[in-house]
Automatic annotation (TrEMBL), chain B:
It comes from Pelosinus fermentans B4. Pfam families: EIIC-GAT. The keyword Ligase does not apply. The keyword Transmembrane applies. Its main location: membrane. It is a multi-pass membrane protein. Residues 4-416 form the PTS EIIC type-2 domain. This is PTS system Galactitol-specific IIC component. GO terms for biological process: phosphoenolpyruvate-dependent sugar phosphotransferase system. Keywords: Cell membrane, Membrane, Phosphotransferase system, Sugar transport, Transmembrane, Transmembrane helix, Transport. InterPro entries: EIIC-GAT (IPR013853), PTS_EIIC_2 (IPR013014), PTS_sugar-sp_permease (IPR004703).
Length: 100, 416
């Protein structure tokens, strides 16, 4: 089974992206997907994306579109607030599966 | 009693894991999970201590040389918010503040005194920090805990009050930012923005943030800040080329590694944070609330980023020329967005105004950070932070941004 690479982006790369990353991994694994999650800060995104080539970006802070290099971005806020986590996970899972 | 003292003497690396584990058991996480998160916290502390050792052992002699060579009275080291957080989590009032904080939030929500449900338990460290300031000033844990409580109430109210800005400027409806070191400055930021509105000519200027991020964005990266600043300090300290390069790389390493160590701490706190969040959500199913989050969710805004990048040299300049300032900005140059968020938000992202207001904020932050150096250093020593011989004092720009706790601190100081 293919392992999907997910990049979580946050303001500090510490607090919020850790939560988003853990939840992301948890919820997507529950939906039967194999994922690898890496975190970074908003300022590092532009440099990190070409190197890591994530399939999808989950951001908990605003990110410049130019920094995304065309990668699909989801707002990771639901993973932080606890509201709408299942819906978000469904959307990400659907997108990843459509990539196969 | 003996046992408690024994545990306290072991220092935060052992004490915190035990406390977190006990809190976890209290929230019914089950022993394995509670134990793991406790141990992970211990690992986080161990990692943080390692990095701060590297910071002080490298930077301290350099800053002392700088003082000798140039008469620059920048002898207070800015160790940054990660250390301030770690120190706060190492004080004995942690469990009391956690539990009291949740209780206050629940109480205020049920009485409709606030609409903010602060689920960001990581940032309870700010409340603990406030309490710790008062505790070490007055030698009374009770007063410290009360101070924490007062801070929590004020921060929740400010979060409610500024929520419309969060919704409009940052496009986050239903979210508020009860984050102490940013929101303390919100009233001042909003006021200053209104003042600028009245100044003819100036009130029309704006600068495009995208251009700034494109050209200078790379300077916002902590690794590079460390490298450049380390080199600069090495030169000022009169080091040989070899010395300058070594210091430069070591400082880059410190700024790069520190956040990662703090991440480990955060991982350990996650289960507790989840439990706290579930507890709060379950008490108020279906109630209309603002969800209180870490300000990190908005600092990616291009105007905020742009202002903070430009503020790096401005901050350094201010630190050098302001009479009476003793703090050498360093680690928290990477954390400026948290302190300066509300310099930018009131004008809806106007970079020019953001710069002016930020500069004014920064003057305050530098002086407050200098004033808090004594008690911050004392706090660090009390929680057994590793200090090499002859290190002067520590503080942080982020600590300097804790305006509300500082006001409480000064008021208590008058009566003490």
């Amino acid at each position: 089974m293919k392992t999907f690479r997910i990049l979580t982006i946050c303001g500090t790369g510490i607090a919020t992206s850790t939560v988003a990353a853990e939840k992301c991994k948890q919820y997507l694994t529950k939906r039967g997907l194999k994922v690898e999650v890496v975190e970074c800060k908003a300022v590092e995104a532009s440099g990190k994306i070409p190197v890591y080539s994530p399939h999808v970006v989950v951001a908990t802070t605003p990110v410049n579109d130019s920094a995304l290099h065309g990668t699909k971005k989801f707002s990771g806020l639901p993973f932080l607030t606890g509201v709408g986590m299942d819906k978000l996970a469904d959307e990400i899972a659907a997108y990843l599966q459509s990539l196969e | 009693m003996q046992i408690i003292n024994f545990i306290l003497d072991l220092g935060p690396t052992v004490m915190m894991p035990i406390i977190i584990m006990l809190l976890g058991l209290l929230f019914r996480q089950g022993f394995p999970r509670a134990f793991r998160s406790g141990l992970t916290i211990g690992m986080g502390f161990a990692g943080i201590f390692l990095v701060i050792s590297m910071l002080t052992s490298n930077l301290s002699p350099a800053t002392q040389a700088m003082v000798t060579n140039w008469g620059l009275h920048l002898d207070v080291m800015d160790v940054g918010w990660p250390i301030a957080a770690a120190i706060s989590f190492g004080t004995p009032i942690v469990p009391a503040v956690f539990i009291m904080g949740l209780f206050i939030n629940v109480l205020m929500l049920s009485m409709n005194w606030t609409k903010t449900m602060d689920i960001d338990l990581w940032n309870y460290w700010h409340f603990i920090f406030s309490g710790a300031l008062i505790m070490y000033l007055t030698n009374s844990a009770i007063l410290g805990i009360i101070a924490s409580g007062i801070t929590i109430v004020i921060v929740l109210k400010l979060a409610d009050w500024t929520q419309p800005y969060v919704a409009k400027v940052f496009d986050m409806p239903g979210i508020s930012l009860p984050h102490t070191e940013s929101i303390s400055w919100a009233p001042l930021g909003i006021l200053l923005n209104k003042v600028i509105d009245k100044i003819p000519g100036i009130n029309k200027i704006d600068i495009n943030p995208e251009k700034i991020q494109e050209r200078f964005g790379v300077f916002g990266e902590p690794m590079l800040i460390g490298l450049v600043l380390g080199a600069f300090i090495g030169v000022l300290a009169g080091y040989t080329v070899e010395g300058v390069v070594k210091l430069s790389v070591n400082m880059a390493a410190v700024l790069f590694l520190m956040p990662r160590m703090v991440r480990i701490l955060m991982e350990g706190l996650l289960p507790l944070s989840e439990s706290g969040r579930e507890y709060l959500s379950n008490r108020f199913p279906g109630k209309e609330v603002f969800i209180g989050l870490d300000a990190a969710v908005v600092i990616g805004h291009p105007s905020v980023m742009a202002v903070c990048i430009l503020m790096i040299p401005i901050t350094l300049l201010l630190a050098a020329v302001l009479p009476g300032n003793r703090i050498l900005p360093f680690t928290d140059l990477a954390g400026l967005p948290f302190c300066l968020l509300w310099a930018v938000a009131p004008s809806k992202g106007n970079v020019f105004r953001g710069l002016i207001i930020s500069t004014i904020f920064m003057v305050g932050i530098l002086y407050i950070a200098t004033d808090l150096a004594l008690v911050t250093t004392l706090m660090a020593k009390q929680v057994n932070f590793p200090f090499p011989e002859g290190t002067a004092a520590i503080s942080s720009l982020d600590g300097g941004a804790h305006l509300i706790p500082y006001i409480i601190f000064k008021i208590v100081e008058i009566f003490h």
